[in-house]
Amino acid sequence: MSKEIKVALLGIVALAALYIGFNFLKGSNLLSSDRTYFAKYDNVDGLTVGNPVILNGIKVGQVKQMELLPLEHNRVKVSLELQKGVTVGDSTVASLSGSLLGSKTITLFLGKNANTYDGGEELKSYTVASITDAFQAKALPVLGTVDSTLIKVNSFLSKDARISLQATLLNAQGSTEALKNLLIMNQRNINQITTNMAKLTSDLNVTSRKFDRIAANFATLSDSLKSAPVGPAMRKLNATMTEAQTAMTGVNKALTDQKGSLGKLINDTLLYNNLNSTAASSDALLKDLKENPKRYVHFSVFGGGGKDKTKTETTKKPNGEVEVEHKKVETKPAVSTTE
Questions:
Q1: 296-300: long-range contacts (C-beta < 8 A, 24 or more apart)?
Q2: Strand partners, 66
Q3: Is residue 249 within 8 Å of residue 241, measured between CB atoms?
Q4: Model pLDDT for residues 189-220, shown as the tens digit of each residue
Q5: Which DSSP state fits 116?
Q6: What is the residue-wise DSSP string for 250-296?
Q7: pLDDT tens across 65-91, in order?
Q8: In 56-130, which residue ranges form alpha helices assigned H by DSSP?
Q9: How many helices (H) and strands (E) does the chain have?
Q10: Backbone conformation region of residue 38, classed left if phi is above 0, alpha if psi is from -120 to 50, else beta
Q11: pTM (2 decimals)?
Q12: Backbone angles phi, psi at 256, to 5 degrees
């Protein structure tokens, strides 16, 4: 055998080994008896050749090939290489799903098959919306709204508005510095206020304990009143009140009865007029006594000498008239005794 033939055979073997090794590194085993099926998807972003095919959490195959179909609105035909022991059919669904990191896998869902596939058939396809897709679907409108809002804010903030806003910020900064300086200057007062608040809190705690003792005393008093014989005392009090009411009724009846002494004393006007007349007569007598004391009082050392004296009586009638009456009083001569 010539050298050229040996070199050619060696080149062919090397190319075959390279092809087999390259496919093996991609996850495809040319010498295996695995079966190939395919499924069509609208978008396979993140799916690559060699990605696993999962059944009940176990890898049962891999993605063998992906092909773009321009005649079918640019759908993607994905070839799936499955192990020979995996049975699929017309109810099998190849679901394309993704992870948080962006990688995609195909998960098989088996059902009751009316027809069983031997290889080369198309499986039903389904695409699960990933978290990234859902976030993009929600975030894109929000980003658009934020962008338009920022554009409006930028257009609103003209040069004068920016200057005014900057001045407002400077004023706010100055107010903050003034407040800080005020707090520093009044730190002693603030400390005193804090001390007073702490003392007030302590006093309130003491007062609270006193109130607790008062409440306990009231509770004890309430228990004592509850256990005290209140019933007999109340019955005695009711009897006493009944007797007092009866007595007051009798007094009231006596006062209102014009036939009795108290009733006549209160209701009879004649007694009032007599008392008034007597008071007037007494008043006139006292005045006359002050003005003419010699009419009523005579002093004689050696006797009256047998002279007649005159007595004056003043009487005030019920109608208001004053009657003055002079009476002559005979006096006997004084009798002197000698030893």
A1: 300/334
A2: 78
A3: no
A4: 888 888 888 888 888 888 888 888 888 888 88
A5: B
A6: HHHHHHH-TTSHHHHHHH-HHHHHHHHHHHHHHHHHHHHHHH-GGGT
A7: 999 999 999 999 999 999 888 889 999
A8: none
A9: 7, 9
A10: beta
A11: 0.36
A12: -90, -15
Are the C-beta atoms of residues 78 and 66 closer than 8 Å to each other? Answer: yes
Residue 121 in tokens: 């058939």
H or E element in which residue 249 lies: helix 230-256
> pLDDT digits over 239-250, tens only?
899 989 888 888
CB 314 within 8 A of CB 324: yes
- Give 259-298 pLDDT, tens digit per residue: 666 666 667 677 777 778 888 888 888 888 788 877 766 5
Give the Cα separation of 322 and 284 in Å (integer). 9
Q: Is 146 helix (H, G, I), strand (E, B) or coil?
A: helix
Q: Give the C-alpha separation, 278 to 318, whole Å.
A: 9
Q: Which residue in the block uniquely carries the two structure tokens 């098959």?
A: 113
CA 313, chain centre distance (Å): 93
Residue 277's identity, in one-letter code, is S
Q: Which residue has the tokens 């055998």?
A: 1
Amino acid of residue 268 = D
